[in-house]
From TrEMBL:
Gene (name only): murB
UniProt pathway annotation: Cell wall biogenesis; peptidoglycan biosynthesis
Protein name: UDP-N-acetylenolpyruvoylglucosamine reductase
Reactions that this protein is recorded to catalyse: UDP-N-acetyl-alpha-D-muramate + NADP(+) = UDP-N-acetyl-3-O-(1-carboxyvinyl)-alpha-D-glucosamine + NADPH + H(+)
Domain FAD-binding PCMH-type: 21-185
Function as written in the Swiss-Prot or TrEMBL entry: Cell wall formation.
Chief location category: cytoplasm
Lineage of the organism: Bacteria, Pseudomonadati, Pseudomonadota, Gammaproteobacteria, Methylococcales
Stored HAMAP family: MurB
MF annotations from Gene Ontology: UDP-N-acetylmuramate dehydrogenase activity
Length: 292
């Protein structure tokens, strides 16, 4: 098989994740562009397990690594352009923060909240990522999907069941791109809004530490961070993983954490919140791979 991208075998994934942890991928493919990715997926053997990574945030790769093929879109699938006066085409590998600024520069409003999401559009589409009260699928009109045979499918928003940090209806398909529907606004106002949101984020979140973003979903009518802090868990550590002193819904890698440390800490937090408040915290972070 001739590919234009880069295929790596037994490639350690820690350097590709924002937590800086994770075992090796059996195969890691970095496509040259969308067309190359489509050809590569079409060439894979039937039943090959397929995983996707963008910026590696919201992702815990276990220490035993991943059997199968991991597609890394970081720095790839990066095309973005104005489709018409109120619509933006964006591929899955574009960082959400870039989308926010691109739309603001064009004088389109509604995507400012994306500046607070530390991942790519592909990941944001998969989980309906949100920040500052905004959610990804509130601005999605239609998407382009790819199936395990390399077939490309166009789907409308209404074909998915979208809820808080949840998107159902994917069924062995993955996101290649999206068309966003926005409103005409004022470029300067949007840029100032983004600036204010980022200042708020930097003041309240450990943005300069190795984290995955928010670990847990907020339960209805409450906040995961409040519950975790109320359990006295700020600063609590297992191995190299510690609950952030700045924001209790973040787990930091102090530099020597393993995936097992992080996962054990996640489960400890869940147990403590369940015991003290009777609330079952659900993870926002996606856990993949095998334990060591």
């Amino acid at each position: 098989m001739v590919t234009r991208g880069t295929l790596l075998n037994n490639e350690p994934l820690a350097k590709y994740t924002s937590w800086r942890v994770g075992g090796p991928a059996q195969h890691l493919y970095i496509p040259e562009n969308k067309a190359d990715l489509i050809e590569f997926i079409a060439s894979l053997p039937a039943g090959e397990p397929l995983y996707w990574m963008g910026l590696g945030s919201n992702l815990l790769v276990r220490d035993g690594g991943i059997r199968g093929t991991v597609i890394n879109t970081r720095g790839r699938l990066k095309e973005m352009y104005l489709a018409d006066s109120e619509r933006v085409y964006v591929e899955a590998g574009v960082p959400c923060a870039h989308v926010a600024r691109f739309c603001a520069d064009l004088g389109l409003t509604g995507a400012e909240f994306l500046a607070g999401i530390p991942g790519t559009m592909g990941g944001a589409l998969k989980m309906n990522a949100g920040a500052f009260g905004g959610e990804t699928w509130s601005i999605v009109e239609k998407v382009e999907m790819i199936n395990p045979r390399g077939g490309v499918i166009q789907r409308d928003h209404h074909e998915f069941e979208v809820a808080y940090r949840s998107v159902k209806g994917l069924a062995d398909e993955w996101f290649l791109s999206a068309q966003l529907k926005l409103n005409k606004g004022n470029s300067e106002a949007s840029q100032q809004h983004i600036k204010a949101l980022l200042e708020k984020r930097n003041a309240s979140q450990p943005t300069n530490k190795p984290t995955c973003g928010s670990v847990f979903k907020n339960p209805p009518g409450d906040y995961a961070a409040r519950l975790i802090e109320a359990c006295g868990l700020k600063g609590f550590a297992i191995g190299g993983a510690v609950v952030s002193e700045k924001h209790a819904n973040f787990i930091e890698n102090r530099g020597n954490a393993s995936s097992e440390d992080i996962e054990t800490l996640i489960e400890h937090i869940q147990t403590q919140v369940q015991t003290q408040f009777g609330i079952s915290l659900q993870t926002e972070v996606c856990r993949v791979g095998d334990k060591a």
